[in-house]
Specification:
The radius of gyration is 21 Å and the shape is globular. It folds into 2 domains: about 20-250, Aspartate Aminotransferase, domain 2 (3-Layer(aba) Sandwich), CATH 3.40.640; about 255-380, Aspartate Aminotransferase, domain 1, CATH 3.90.1150. The strands form 3 sheets. It has an 8-stranded mixed sheet, sandwiched between helices. A 4-stranded antiparallel sheet has the order 10-12-15-13. It has a 3-stranded antiparallel sheet with strand order 7-6-11, with no helix packed on it. Helix content is about 35%, strand content about 15%. The chain has helices at about 20-30, 35-50, 60-70, 90-95, 115-130, 145-155, 210-220, 240-250, 255-270, 300-305, 305-315, 345-355, 365-380, and strands at about 55-60, 80-85, 100-105, 135-140, 160-165, 170-175, 175, 185-190, 200-205, 280, 285-290, 295-300, 320-325, 340, 355-360. Strand 4 (about 135-140), helix 6 (about 145-155) and strand 5 (about 160-165) form a beta-alpha-beta unit. By secondary structure, it is an alpha/beta fold. Bound molecules: pyridoxal-5'-phosphate. Pyridoxal-5'-phosphate binds next to helix 3.
């Protein structure tokens, strides 16, 4: 088969080669289950890496959000403010807890939670006499939200912030690790994330007592007794020792993966920015993005093609690209939830109309990226397919 047609994926797993050594250790000691030394070590290593006091390894990022919501006592009838421009998993745990999400728009500067919209939502909540019990801010495509501003607004109302940093492990906000600015932060090791355990997540915090409760809930809430004794509802949310072994092998190369993804983004910017109507996701000066996914918007008027045309043109060349997240307030599931836009304009809706994510995997070669770029230029400049 000619290499030209080898499929280029959006963000495939990229192993370091060290994972199997850790897995072999687990096999050699028959520590396949439960929990085990790799889980303990992985938690410690992630906590150290990001500079949090503690971490709990869980079966998914979604599970981590769910238990973070439990830690801040979200229950039936409560309200939680949540970024709208994100994956459904950011908000679904609000529903698990019987609470109601209120969706907050993005700001143009970072594509993350708009402080304007957040202030407006708080003002209305205050007037209605019912404040949210938590705010979930999402750090999209590898970039932190403007945490100082968001934290200040929330602090003013005494509301804790949960950082959905599923996409921003390895990024920074003013020198601190993304995911460690809020009261609780969560990471995901799903297969498409910057590092993966094939599936898994982590909750990080300085609240060590809270993390102990998370460990308890995540392992079926078993009370200390010799028989099986339960006084609380528990969950089966822990990460297995084998998956933690993979995570340890991945964590070793996280910094390298960040460098690669940033280089990929830089090459796209360099090769495509001259095209009228093409704008890349901005990198705010408050931090360093991992550029987990390289995202850009395409002005259909100027380019004469829609995002779906571009995605189709790439698909023709066996290249995977995707629209950006569809804002949650536009999802059928959440269409009846309140939504606060940035100003008269709904930024997330505009981004959804014009945004796409390009292949960004750290294992993509420069040659492969060139194929993506040539195809894009051909499509956006209305030329016949370029021959690579
Ligand atoms: C991937 C992702 C999640 C969910 O993580 P899982 O580990 O797949 O459960 C949550 N929020 C965002 C923003 C994500 O991208």
């Amino acid at each position: 088969m000619v290499t030209k047609n080898k499929r280029i994926f959006l963000s495939p797993p990229h192993m370091s080669g060290c994972e199997e050594r850790f897995i072999r250790e687990a096999f050699a000691s028959n520590w396949i289950a439960p929990l085990g030394p790799h889980v303990d070590a992985f938690e410690k290593e992630v906590a150290e890496y990001v500079g949090a006091k503690g971490a709990v390894a869980l079966s998914s990022g979604t599970a981590a959000i769910h238990l973070a919501l439990k830690l801040v006592n979200i229950g039936q009838g409560d309200i939680v403010f949540c970024s709208s421009f994100t994956f459904a998993a950011s908000a679904n745990p609000i529903i698990y807890q019987g609470a109601t999400p209120v969706f907050i728009d993005s700001e143009p500067e970072s594509w993350n939670m708009s402080p304007n919209a957040l202030r407006q939502a708080f003002a209305d909540a205050e007037r209605a006499g019912k404040l949210p019990k938590a705010v979930i801010t999402v750090n999209l495509y590898g970039q932190s939200s403007d945490m100082d501003v968001i934290l200040k607004i929330c602090k003013g109302h005494g509301v804790p912030v949960i950082e959905d940093a599923a996409e921003s492990l390895g990024a920074t906000y003013k020198e601190k690790a993304s995911g460690t600015l809020g009261k609780y932060g969560i990471y995901s090791f799903n297969g498409n994330k910057i590092i993966t355990t094939s599936g898994g997540g982590m909750l990080v915090s300085d609240d060590l007592e809270g993390l102990e409760r998370v460990r308890f809930w995540a392992s079926q809430a078993r009370d200390p007794a010799r028989h099986y004794q339960h006084s609380r509802v528990g969950y089966n949310y822990r990460l297995s020792n084998i998956l933690a072994a993979i995570g340890r092998g991945q964590l070793i190369v996280l910094a390298e993966r960040v460098r690669m993804r940033r280089a990929i983004f830089g090459r796209y910017v360099h090769a495509l920015s001259d095209i009228p109507g093409v704008l890349f996701m901005p990198e705010a000066d408050f931090g360093c993005s991992t550029h987990w996914l390289s995202a850009l918007t395409i002005d259909q008027q100027l380019c004469g093609v829609s995002t779906l045309d571009v995605i189709d043109a790439l698909a023709e060349e066996n290249i995977e690209a995707r629209p950006v997240w569809k804002p949650l307030h536009l999802q059928p599931l959440y269409s009846r939830c309140p939504y606060y836009s940035h100003n008269e304009e709904s930024i997330s809706e505009m981004l959804f109309q014009s945004g796409i994510c390009l292949p960004s995997g750290s294992s993509m070669s420069e040659r492969e990226q060139k194929r993506v770029i040539e195809t894009l230029r051909g499509c956006l400049l209305g030329r016949v397919k370029a021959v690579v």
